[in-house]
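Budget justification aside, the reviewers requested a transparent look at the raw inputs and outputs of the sequence design task funded under Objective 1. We therefore reproduce one unedited record. The lines immediately below are the structure tokens for a 559-residue chain.
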């Protein structure tokens, strides 16, 4: 079997172009960018605002089947697809989320693609990049400090320390910070209370950052964040602490979209990165809308499988922003389908056509779900060098029987050229104007009914179950005026159910609801099903142990 260089080796060998040349390829002048070195830049606020009269290009969403330890390569496919579109002569660009430091040093790895379908500079993107996440973390923790400071002095808002819902954040996997007691050490250190840390990508500031349409909208949303409740159980908002102005000021530069490039020198925006569980898992609205004004085809992705990522992209991001996708690319791999078909990870290298067919139950359910939003779908097989023709044929025939196109894409090995067939078909579908996009449910439905509708129609559940305390949380939110908000489901990404070991396409299961959380600035209600970790821990052997500097002082060990 052929051997291939590592992702980092491929990225380091790339023929990068100066970032002003990349900008010029999509009609952005040098005066309209703020350079961060020679290979990355931000777009100025004035330039972004000047594009409002431009026509919109076609919006292409890349999503995937339910994730497995074998991997699906959603980001890699997204990058390969945009390179493929450019390869066949289309004016295209990509919009992706920024990666978090926590997974980079932990177990998951980075989020800049892989093989010969990457966004570069890979090391910068996966580490500090342009400082956006640091700004978001500082903004979040400024609000935390203002809350405790308000209580320390006079507590004029009568905030109940036992009902503060706003934690602190850090962009690192650190399980020791999940539950803390702050304010210890005497009266000069504030009032002792129990709190904790989340990872930065789980911050509501991050979700607000990615849903805001401009700086004014950003400040309004920040002001509307509910940080806790009074002793009379009334919501307290950030604007009551006069926090919204300072927080927006901290985010002013970060809010400008980041411009980088693919290995094949095609333009890429990477901006924002909310959790795909506790939030909506999509890059910023401002970068997506800006890209649509600059390119004829814009490729973007949503976190995890289509049951979480695509559903939230449609029901939260599109609902709130007015975006309308033209086509969905559903990514699958033979390895992942074999795992859904019951094959263990160590046996995935052998041909198993029967397991592929059984695993296609998961693929079929995702296809069915996407059709409920009125957007045409095409399946992209992310080709592995160990795949066999028989396995590919099984997937293609399965899709054909459902009336869905399926294309093999070898972008990991061959870059844009390997994705050309997929790109041509995606462009053809996007240009057909057959999308009749609609959200899954109406705003006027009750919060409980919205949750139940998602569980039954997307997850195949028989019912949702919750104790009286949780049912009262739904009722309280509606009484406080949040009843028209969409639902952001937080559950395991590995299954349609809430059991991560229940693979394939299970039906008739119950979806237990553990708690309900309000994100008033982001304007959605988080429904937590099962155990959801908002502060991950590091594995026994963290990826950080392999990262360092080589003799030339260049970073090594990063994938």
């Amino acid at each position: 079997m052929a051997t291939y260089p590592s992702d980092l080796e491929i990225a380091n060998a790339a023929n990068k172009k100066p970032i002003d040349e990349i900008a010029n390829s999509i009609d952005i002048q040098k005066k309209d960018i703020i350079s961060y070195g020679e290979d990355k830049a931000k777009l100025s606020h004035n330039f972004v605002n000047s594009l409002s009269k431009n026509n919109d290009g076609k919006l292409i969403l890349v999503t995937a089947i339910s994730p497995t330890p074998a991997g699906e390569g959603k980001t890699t496919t997204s990058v390969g697809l945009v390179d493929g579109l450019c390869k066949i002569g289309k004016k295209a660009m990509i919009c992706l989320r920024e990666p978090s430091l926590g997974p980079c040093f932990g177990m998951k790895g980075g989020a800049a693609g892989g093989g010969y379908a990457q966004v570069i500079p890979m090391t910068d993107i996966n580490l500090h990049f342009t400082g956006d996440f640091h700004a978001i973390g500082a903004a979040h923790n400024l609000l935390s400090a203002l809350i405790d400071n308000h209580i320390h002095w006079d507590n004029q808002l009568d905030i109940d320390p036992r009902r503060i819902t706003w934690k602190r954040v850090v962009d690192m996997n650190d399980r020791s910070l999940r539950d803390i007691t702050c304010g210890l050490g005497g009266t000069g250190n504030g009032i002792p209370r129990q709190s904790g840390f989340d990872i930065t990508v789980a911050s509501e500031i991050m979700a607000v950052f990615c849903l805001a349409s401009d700086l004014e909208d950003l400040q309004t949303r920040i002001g509307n964040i509910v940080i806790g409740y009074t002793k009379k159980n009334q919501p307290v908002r950030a604007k009551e602490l006069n926090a919204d102005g300072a927080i927006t000021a901290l985010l002013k530069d970060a809010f400008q979209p980041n411009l980088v490039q693919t290995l094949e020198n095609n333009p890429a925006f990477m901006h924002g990165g909310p959790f795909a569980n506790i939030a909506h898992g999509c890059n910023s609205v401002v970068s997506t809308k800006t890209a649509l004004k600059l390119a004829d085809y814009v490729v973007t992705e949503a976190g995890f499988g289509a049951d979480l990522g695509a559903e939230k992209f449609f029901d939260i991001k599109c609902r709130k922003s007015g975006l309308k996708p033209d086509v969905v690319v559903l990514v699958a791999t033979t390895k992942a389908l074999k795992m859904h078909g019951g094959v263990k990870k160590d046996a995935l290298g052998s041909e198993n056509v029967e397991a592929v067919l059984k695993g296609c139950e998961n693929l079929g359910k995702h296809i069915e779900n996407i059709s409920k939003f009125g957007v045409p779908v095409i399946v992209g097989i992310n080709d592995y060098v160990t795949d066999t023709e028989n396995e590919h044929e099984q997937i293609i025939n399965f899709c054909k029987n459902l009336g869905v196109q399926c294309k093999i894409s070898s972008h990991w090995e061959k870059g844009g050229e390997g994705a050309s067939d997929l790109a041509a078909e995606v462009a053809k579908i996007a240009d057909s104007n057959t999308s009749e996009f609609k959200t899954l449910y109406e705003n006027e439905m009750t919060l409980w009914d919205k949750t139940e509708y998602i569980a039954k129609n997307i997850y195949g559940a028989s019912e949702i179950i919750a104790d009286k305390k949780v049912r009262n949380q739904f009722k309280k939110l509606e009484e406080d005026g949040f009843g028209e908000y969409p639902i952001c489901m937080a559950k395991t990404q590995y299954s349609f159910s809430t059991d991560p070991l229940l693979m394939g396409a299970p039906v008739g299961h119950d979806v237990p609801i553990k708690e309900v959380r309000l994100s008033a600035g982001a304007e959605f209600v988080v429904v937590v099903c099962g155990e959801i970790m908002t502060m991950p821990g590091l594995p026994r052997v963290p990826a950080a142990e392999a990262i360092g500097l080589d003799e030339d002082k260049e970073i090594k060990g990063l994938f």
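Residues 132-251 form a domain with the Domain 2, N(10)-formyltetrahydrofolate synthetase fold (CATH 3.30.1510.10). The chain has a mean pLDDT of 94. Computational costs for records of this kind are itemized in the attached budget.
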